[in-house]
């Protein structure tokens, strides 16, 4: 009887120890994942706002720039990141998340505009399920750089902010070269990006957040 009781208690203690260890590891990993995601988001925001120095910097240096230059504010159904001057006396731009359906799954991105909300400062697509080497090329610098400096003219009825044209044919201020062989990704990106811009750009122009500058 005692031996059986000892065996039960032993297994109970052993299970409790292992459960505690697994729980602790899970908590540490979850916190580490959260911090890594936070750092990745900060880097994306600084990148589209063109606030990262050209030389490589450490995570701590990058986080210091973010704390000094960025104010995170709720704005409608999303967060807007307000970029302020080094002196903190004026707004230099805004960054905001965008998302929509791609060909294989949702695409998540970040768009930055100037303080007057008149042109694109930068754009990034940082999470997606598009085909590597085809639709997945939306993350490549050559594709993203096409948007930099593009004017944000209010489209006339039935028009879009931007059109993705067959590679090598984009010439207008509202046109960018699409990715060869990724017709569906390009078509869906064009549609949801336009939808998102038509939601947020008018709001930013009407009530620009200042971040308490």
Automatic annotation (TrEMBL):
Q: Offer a single GO CC term for the protein.
A: membrane
Please provide, alphabetically and separated by semicolons, the GO molecular function terms listed in this UniProt record: FMN binding; oxidoreductase activity, acting on NAD(P)H, quinone or similar compound as acceptor
Q: Name one GO biological process term.
A: sodium ion transport
Residue ranges that the Swiss-Prot or TrEMBL entry lists as coiled coil: none
Q: Which InterPro entries match?
A: FMN-bd (IPR007329), NqrC (IPR010204)
The FMN-binding domain sits at: 102-200
Alphabetical UniProt keywords: Cell inner membrane, Cell membrane, Flavoprotein, FMN, Ion transport, Membrane, NAD, Phosphoprotein, Sodium, Sodium transport, Translocase, Transmembrane, Transmembrane helix, Transport, Ubiquinone
Q: Which domain of life is it from?
A: Bacteria
Q: From the Swiss-Prot or TrEMBL record, give the protein name.
A: Na+-transporting NADH:ubiquinone oxidoreductase subunit C
Q: From which source organism is this entry?
A: Desulfacinum hydrothermale DSM 13146
């Amino acid at each position: 009887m005692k031996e059986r009781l000892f065996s039960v208690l032993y297994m109970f203690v052993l299970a409790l120890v292992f459960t505690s260890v697994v729980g602790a590891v899970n908590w540490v990993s979850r916190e580490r994942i959260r911090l890594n995601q936070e750092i990745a988001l900060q880097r994306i925001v600084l990148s589209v706002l063109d606030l990262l120095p050209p030389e490589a910097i450490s995570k701590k240096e990058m986080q210091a720039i973010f704390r000094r230059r960025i104010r995170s504010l709720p704005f409608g159904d999303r967060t807007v990141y307000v970029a302020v001057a080094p002196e903190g006396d004026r707004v230099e731009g805004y960054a905001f998340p965008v998302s929509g359906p791609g060909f294989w799954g949702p695409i998540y991105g970040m768009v930055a505009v100037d303080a007057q909300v008149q042109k694109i400062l930068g754009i990034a697509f940082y999470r997606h399920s598009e085909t590597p080497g085809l639709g997945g090329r939306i993350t490549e610098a050559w594709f993203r750089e096409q948007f930099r400096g593009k004017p944000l003219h209010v489209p006339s009825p039935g028009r879009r902010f931007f059109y993705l044209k067959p590679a090598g044919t984009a010439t207008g201020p509202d046109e960018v070269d699409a990715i060869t062989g990724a017709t569906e990704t390009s078509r869906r990106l064009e549609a949801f990006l336009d939808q998102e811009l038509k939601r947020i750009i008018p709001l930013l122009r009407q009530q620009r957040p200042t971040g308490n500058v």
